[in-house]
Write a structure and sequence with these properties.
The protein is an alpha/beta fold. Helix content is 32%, strand content 23%. Bound molecules: S-adenosylmethionine and thymidine-5'-phosphate (TMP).
């Protein structure tokens, strides 16, 4: 693994701080990113244990975003039309935003965060409040294999590929389909979206790296969709190599060629990316310091895990961004880890209250700009660091 980027000492991205704990010392770890020249995988170098990240305090709820809800509704329709599965498993089912689009006797969810598992359990869905592994796979699919396994924004959080893919292979029927969905490395590098890296995001996959990994388990990608969620993701359709029902589409070849042409197989591409990241830091700080000097009121919008990486890497604190708005009830009245900026309950933006808004949830830009069109019309401005820091 060759290191190309050091994002400094970072707290756990989702460890939002209670007011009474503000003076307590936070646990930090060094966030360094590396490239594996053998399998082209880009990953963080120092990992944090899964129990520390995924427990009953995990704040992220897929259902809180309209974009995600719609994405899951549309995918469920597509899956029913294209594959008509009888038995579906979702790994990382979170608060049930995907599985709720299926009949209760058709689908099971695997979700280790008990707070989230409970939400779906209460709606009478079958949920296993555990980490996905081979033992669980045997328990769920001993008698009946799955026609479809779906996992979004989860595999990129899991350290042990060997266990994960062995378990998937065990649970999937011979002609079954695995659908994985995760942020795309090509989009991440193009957009200088270094905030895709934080403690939970162990990897940002490219098609070429995923192909290499899947190859070890006799699995192969037969189709790909580029989707807009999470700042640009790929949805990979995967099958067992022995399954000849689904032909490999041209889209796979095209994606591989796009990634190769962009240089995702070459270390030098990542060195260039690292240089752009350090320029991005200087520019963002310049904008925020200048607004402060001119006595402008700057707040943040979307206290995301991504923001945590940006704020801590750039050394931004409440002197530069007064507070953040967020819609997630769990985050409200807490403080962002590291930067210790307060998170307030979201209120519609008004130019009388705020001058500039740092877009922490840049991946929901369209949804947010639509919601705040009055603020924008009144002359309110957003600051985004993607693809380079600027006021929009
Ligand atoms: N799939 C949802 C989505 O795309 O919106 C949730 C994504 S969320 C970022 C990651 C989810 O994966 C969390 O709910 C987390 O608890 C779950 N998770 C993490 N590690 C897991 C594991 N080893 N097995 C199953 N789920 C896991
Ligand atoms: P994510 O980037 O990890 O998906 O998190 C999105 C965060 O942004 C989540 O905390 C909710 C917040 N958010 C808002 O506060 N308002 C919005 O309109 C949207 C779309 C997200």
């Amino acid at each position: 693994m060759k290191k190309f980027l050091d994002l400094g000492l970072q707290p756990l991205a989702n460890s939002y701080i209670l007011e009474k704990n503000l003076k307590m010392k936070e646990k930090k770890f060094r966030l360094e990113i590396g490239f594996n020249e053998k399998n082209y995988l880009v990953s963080i170098l120092n990992t944090v244990s899964k129990e520390k990240m995924f427990n009953k305090n995990y704040p992220y709820k897929s259902s809180e975003s309209k974009t995600m809800r719609n994405s899951f509704i549309n995918l469920a329709k597509k899956i029913k039309r294209r594959f008509n599965p009888n038995f579906v498993i979702e790994i990382g089912s979170n608060d049930g935003a995907f599985i709720k689009n299926f009949k209760k006797d058709q689908v099971v969810g695997v979700e280790p965060c008990k707070n989230l598992a409970l939400i779906t359990k209460r709606k009478n869905f079958k949920i296993y409040p555990q980490f996905w592994n081979i033992r669980l796979a045997k328990k769920i699919t001993k008698d009946k294999k799955a026609d479809l396994i779906y996992s979004a924004n989860t595999l990129s959080h899991i350290k042990n590929f060997n266990e994960i893919f062995k378990a998937i292979k065990y649970s999937l029927s011979d002609n079954g389909i695995l659908i994985l969905e995760d942020p795309s490395l090509l989009e991440c590098v193009k957009k200088v979206a270094y905030d895709q890296f934080y403690c939970e995001h162990l990897y940002v996959f490219s098609t070429i790296s995923l192909q290499k990994i899947l190859d070890n388990f006799q699995l192969e990608i037969f189709d790909i969709e580029n989707i807009s969620t999470h700042g640009g993701s790929n949805r990979y359709y995967i099958k067992k190599r022995t399954n000849s029902i689904h032909r490999i589409t041209r889209k796979v070849k095209i994606e591989v060629s796009k990634e190769t042409k962009y240089g995702l197989k070459n270390f030098v591409t990542y060195k260039k990316f690292a240089k752009k990241v350090s320029i991005s830091r200087i520019k963002l700080l310049g904008i925020l310091k200048n607004l402060k000097k001119n006595k402008k009121k700057v707040i943040g919008y979307g206290a995301t895990a991504k923001s945590c990486t940006v704020l801590n890497y750039c050394g931004v604190d409440r002197r530069l961004i007064e507070y953040f708005y967020d819609t997630t009830s769990f985050k409200i009245n807490k403080y962002l880890p590291g930067s210790k900026i307060k998170i307030k309950k979201y209120k519609k933006l008004k130019k009388n209250d705020v001058d500039y808004v740092f877009l922490g949830a840049w991946n929901f830009k369209d949804e947010i700009f639509k919601k705040e069109k009055k603020f924008i019309k009144q002359g309110g401005k957003f600051i985004s660091h993607i693809p380079y820091p600027k006021i929009t």
